[in-house]
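SAMPLE LOG
Freezer: B-3
Tube label: C17
Construct: single chain, 277 aa
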Amino acid sequence: MASKFVVFGGNGFLGKRICQEAVTAGYQVVSVSRSGKAPHSTELNDKQWMQEVQWTAADIFKPDSYHMLLKDAANVVHTLGILLENENYKKTLSKTPTNDSRSHLLFLGTGPNPLKKESPYFTYEMMNKQSAIMLANTFKQEIIKKSKKEQAKVNGRSFTYISADRGFPMIPSGYINSKREAELEIEKMQEYFRPIIMRPGFMFDEHRNAIGPRSFIHGALELLYCGNKFLLQNKLQFMNELIRPTVSTQQVSHSILTKIENPDFKGVVSLEEILKA
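STRUCTURE (predicted):
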């Protein structure tokens, strides 16, 4: 029987590509989200693999709503998170761009809203940090319930957390701080599973051709990166730290599966390593 692969936020911008990669690799894939619905897509290829995924609704902050899904899971992936403590930036990403390009640089998101705007959970502390720690702890508790022999099979289990390469200009430090704090707490649980910490930069989807704010930002960042590489030849360290390469959701997903399928791997996967995927 195929190993169970559970993706929290599996209908999001990155989450759906992780589900697709896992289905292709032969896993039994479960997507857990607030709505429990598959993402909208007009692509025939998407519709084919989406039929293989179990789309399930649950609340990340209520373990009782999903702990049974983790009972026999071999791999758990947490993709939830926010870049700004305001849900409107994610809505903006799906709109047609305006002439005010400066505003687009503030709206760097990674998926659909996991919670309603009025929710007290829509903070860096709760969404980026506590939701991941709560999920990891719930996974850990399900492992503890197993026999000693099953508990000992640590290399066969993994918990993947989608962190970030670094912070973004004009984005509060709470964003990257919450990510790093979550990483530390998750790595403490390596007695029960292999912690895999992914640190991607700004993400784009290779199969999305629609023009919008995300495409605008992707193009602008690529232009800056190429200018720094070919014109400045990466000679200015502060520019190298500020201008980072973009990465596709497909590259991130492939890298995740590669690390999961290596029973000896645990720890941080840098942006540079993801780009090699």
